[in-house]
Write a structure and sequence with these properties.
This protein is an alpha/beta fold. The chain has two domains: about 250 residues, Ribonuclease Z/Hydroxyacylglutathione hydrolase-like (Metallo-beta-lactamase, Chain A), CATH 3.60.15.10; about 170 residues, Rossmann fold (3-Layer(aba) Sandwich), CATH 3.40.50. The protein has 14 helices and 19 strands. The strands form three sheets. It has a seven-stranded mixed beta sheet with strand order 6-5-4-3-2-1-19. It has a six-stranded mixed beta sheet with strand order 7-8-9-10-11-18, covered by helices on one side. The longest helix is centred in the middle third of the chain and has 14 residues. The structure holds zinc ion (ZN) (2 copies).
Amino acid sequence: MNLKIHRGTNEIGGNCIEISTAATRVLFDFGMPLVEPDKSEFNFNKYKSLSTKDLIKKNILPDITGLYTEDPNMIDAVIISHPHLDHYGFINYVQRDIPIYIGKAAHELIKISTIFTPSQISISSPYYYQYEKRINIGDISITPYLNDHSAFDAYSFLIEGDGKRIFYSGDFRGHGRKGKLLDTLVKTPPENIDYLLMEGTNLGGSKKNKSEDDIQMELLSLFNKSNGINLVYQAGQNIDRIVSVFKACKEAGKIFVLDVYYAYLLTQLVKVTGNKLPYPSDGFKNVKVFFSSSASKSLVNALGENELYSFQPYKITRDEIDQNFDKIVMIVRGALLPHFKKMNNIDGGNFIYSLWEGYQKKQPTKAFVHYFVKDRKFNYHYVHSSGHADLPTLTKMVNGLNPKKLIPIHTFKKEEYKQKFNKPTIELKDGELLQC
Ligand SMILES: [Zn+2]
Ligand SMILES: [Zn+2]
């Protein structure tokens, strides 16, 4: 088998890996970079008017034969590990004849982004893979392993071909709500792994991650102590975190308010997965839905009025939130700001920031935090934990899978692998071919 990392050997994000035999070529992830080569933030708006050809020339898209246009040597499949942009963001450039594989809930989350956000990145009629159900693409076989990660429905893969076995970790951690999956993987690992292609986002940092249970306890203590409204600002699709907020809210005896975006998101995930997630329904009496204007409009435009009216029995109005402020826990995002400007009683509540703190330097987060903390005198609290593995968890994966060789990916610190994990390590460059 041949392995080529088109992008991701020397950065966090933009993962794109090609694994091939003489007969078959498979691409794992086709992500948008998070950073420019000088490590400043990558902003695709600067490039999106360019043609595919020009994007390749500028090194924005990797130069991959048979991916963008018809070619006798076509890529046979693209496998997306999880619904984060740095793993699927360039999928619109893949020519239509190439089959795309993704988890069913992951696909649902991408569809939801196109309804509620300006994102036009979509995957029409993909194939759905499932946990531990092996699929064959030509003479390469792939077994997906469900992961613990801040993205819902994230996977690692065992990839077999030409008598070799590669394990690609995708993005993962062990301290989230699905941490047990990693325990299971390392207790009964796939055997004889030749190469472990492992992410190292948190290498270089020394922090041990808090678990989602720790986060839930911190939130509970804040909710119990507060006499004001509790607003939690978090990543839109971090479902583990929504569950932590919900559980703490329930235990504190408060009302859990979701706006139409989150209400629809959770309802769809319950429909698609059958998981026991909180969502507006008779089974979750303390979950209420706020009909935020822009999300309501987006939902009606995309799917019609009935979809919105299905939330009517659980509706809470802006005035009801304002009057019952001391009983409310609400998940918030930038688009909701105008609604809070019309609430008069909420000053001095808790503003709980549950994201990477670096985003506060950027708009619209900067203005949002400023409005609550400075203008409305909210108490600021930082309650967060990373979506990625810390060093002990990375070590646990390396020791559990016990590969013959380790290959760094999704890291700024590839030179640390050798020393930290004590394994023969191959530090590839982007585009370098490894004959396995
Ligand atoms: Zn990533
Ligand atoms: Zn990710």
